[in-house]
Amino acid sequence: MTAFEPEFPVGEHVLPAMVSHEGEEVLYLLDGKLEFLIGNDIVLMERGDCIHFKCERPHMGRNIGSKIARLLMVVSSGTPIKRRFTGTGKDS
Fold first, then answer.
1. What is the average pLDDT value for the chain, to the nearest integer?
2. Any idea what the CATH number is for the domain that residue 71 is in?
3. Where are the beta strands (DSSP E) in 1-92?
4. Could you identify which of 7, 34, 37, 85 might form a hypothetical disulfide with 45, taking C-beta atoms 3.0 to 4.6 angstroms apart as the criterion?
Protein backbone atom coordinates (compact mmCIF):
# COMPACT_ATOMS: atom_id res chain seq x y z
CA MET A 1 0.00 0.00 0.00
CA THR A 2 1.33 3.43 -0.97
CA ALA A 3 0.00 6.91 -0.15
CA PHE A 4 0.51 10.07 -2.23
CA GLU A 5 -0.59 13.68 -1.83
CA PRO A 6 -0.69 14.97 -5.41
CA GLU A 7 -1.60 18.55 -6.29
CA PHE A 8 -3.62 19.41 -9.38
CA PRO A 9 -2.90 22.92 -10.74
CA VAL A 10 -5.59 25.31 -11.93
CA GLY A 11 -6.19 25.87 -15.62
CA GLU A 12 -4.86 22.76 -17.32
CA HIS A 13 -6.40 22.82 -20.79
CA VAL A 14 -5.10 19.44 -21.97
CA LEU A 15 -6.75 16.41 -20.45
CA PRO A 16 -4.30 14.09 -18.70
CA ALA A 17 -3.97 10.60 -20.16
CA MET A 18 -6.21 7.88 -18.79
CA VAL A 19 -4.17 5.30 -16.85
CA SER A 20 -4.86 1.80 -15.62
CA HIS A 21 -2.86 -0.57 -13.45
CA GLU A 22 -3.42 -3.39 -11.01
CA GLY A 23 -4.81 -2.80 -7.54
CA GLU A 24 -7.29 -0.44 -5.91
CA GLU A 25 -7.33 3.27 -5.06
CA VAL A 26 -8.99 5.32 -2.37
CA LEU A 27 -9.12 9.06 -3.10
CA TYR A 28 -9.94 11.67 -0.45
CA LEU A 29 -10.09 15.28 -1.65
CA LEU A 30 -8.31 17.50 0.88
CA ASP A 31 -8.97 20.81 -0.89
CA GLY A 32 -10.34 22.16 -4.16
CA LYS A 33 -12.57 20.58 -6.83
CA LEU A 34 -11.75 17.69 -9.15
CA GLU A 35 -13.44 15.95 -12.02
CA PHE A 36 -12.40 12.31 -11.92
CA LEU A 37 -13.08 10.00 -14.85
CA ILE A 38 -13.23 6.29 -14.06
CA GLY A 39 -14.07 4.24 -17.14
CA ASN A 40 -17.16 5.94 -18.56
CA ASP A 41 -18.17 7.42 -15.19
CA ILE A 42 -17.58 11.07 -14.27
CA VAL A 43 -17.25 11.84 -10.56
CA LEU A 44 -17.27 15.47 -9.40
CA MET A 45 -15.34 15.74 -6.14
CA GLU A 46 -15.37 18.58 -3.62
CA ARG A 47 -13.43 18.94 -0.37
CA GLY A 48 -14.15 15.98 1.92
CA ASP A 49 -15.40 13.64 -0.83
CA CYS A 50 -13.97 10.11 -0.95
CA ILE A 51 -14.14 7.43 -3.66
CA HIS A 52 -12.81 3.88 -4.01
CA PHE A 53 -12.32 1.95 -7.27
CA LYS A 54 -10.41 -0.87 -8.93
CA CYS A 55 -7.45 0.54 -10.87
CA GLU A 56 -7.89 -1.78 -13.84
CA ARG A 57 -10.57 0.69 -14.99
CA PRO A 58 -8.93 3.52 -16.97
CA HIS A 59 -8.96 6.69 -14.86
CA MET A 60 -7.68 10.27 -14.59
CA GLY A 61 -8.45 13.44 -12.69
CA ARG A 62 -8.32 17.15 -13.46
CA ASN A 63 -8.86 20.33 -11.51
CA ILE A 64 -12.16 22.07 -12.29
CA GLY A 65 -11.88 24.63 -9.50
CA SER A 66 -10.32 28.06 -9.06
CA LYS A 67 -7.45 26.99 -6.76
CA ILE A 68 -4.98 24.12 -6.47
CA ALA A 69 -6.70 20.84 -5.65
CA ARG A 70 -4.98 18.52 -3.15
CA LEU A 71 -5.80 14.84 -2.95
CA LEU A 72 -4.88 12.03 -0.57
CA MET A 73 -4.45 8.96 -2.78
CA VAL A 74 -3.92 5.51 -1.27
CA VAL A 75 -3.05 2.75 -3.74
CA SER A 76 -2.86 -0.97 -3.02
CA SER A 77 -0.94 -2.97 -5.60
CA GLY A 78 1.12 -6.13 -5.85
CA THR A 79 3.92 -4.16 -7.51
CA PRO A 80 5.57 -0.88 -6.45
CA ILE A 81 3.75 2.23 -7.71
CA LYS A 82 5.63 5.33 -8.86
CA ARG A 83 3.67 8.05 -10.60
CA ARG A 84 4.35 11.51 -11.92
CA PHE A 85 1.56 14.01 -11.41
CA THR A 86 1.41 16.63 -14.16
CA GLY A 87 2.13 20.16 -13.03
CA THR A 88 3.63 19.42 -9.64
CA GLY A 89 7.23 18.91 -10.72
CA LYS A 90 7.46 16.23 -8.04
CA ASP A 91 7.58 12.47 -8.37
CA SER A 92 5.34 10.74 -5.88
1. 85
2. 2.60.120.10
3. 2-4, 7-8, 24-31, 33-38, 41-46, 50-54, 59-63, 69-76
4. 34
